[in-house]
Amino acid sequence: MAEKRRYALKHPIRVVTLSEAGVEKESFIREVTLAERIKGRHMRAADKATGPASAKLLMLGALVGLSAREMDEMDGEDIDTIDAIFEGDADALAQVVTGPLADGQATGPTPSTT
After folding, report:
1. Which domain of life does the UniProt lineage start with (predicted)?
2. Which of 29, 34, 70, 83 is the residue whose CA sits 20 to 30 A from 45?
3. H/E stretch holding 52
């Protein structure tokens, strides 16, 4: 099994959730785990899109395990870099980290609280 590839976001995504008691909790997604390769299921995610930008965000979200709502909050610089990674751009690939995640999490975003 290949080592997990990760990308540290240059601009963390702020996530606010509400508890059942109505208390807001803030956390940040600072790193995402990249799919090993683009597969049909990732491409199929774009079928729900209403336009080309939406299709790109849905597919990239599927590739890094983020929801459409989380992708809506991702900075354009990070979107462009992740897109370039999957296109094989050497400069973008240099920003990929491999190896196990610090907390042992296997996939998806790595949220952290601040």
Report:
1. Bacteria
2. 29
3. helix 52-64
